[in-house]
Amino acid sequence: MRPVIPKCSLCRRVQDDGETEVDQGIWSDLRVFLIKYDLRPIDVVFSHTFCPECAHAYRNAVLYGMPQSLKVSGDAGS
Ligand SMILES: [Zn+2]
After folding, report:
1. Domain housing 26
2. pTM over 0.70
3. Spacing, Cα 78 to ligand 1 middle (Å)
């Protein structure tokens, strides 16, 4: 089974779980990541997400451009 690698949809970096605690959770350039682990793009499955920096930037963009009707409220309902 191919490993699932979280990949940022905006900056295209991938999350590197790392082999040591220091490495854990860092976001690396895709090519650097593939070389580091000697992988080919077809060896892994990418799950599209946002890295923390892009998530923050994206959230700000959404909030500033967002119509009032879509304003985030504490009540999500169900
Ligand atoms: Zn990103």
Report:
1. 4-67
2. no
3. 30
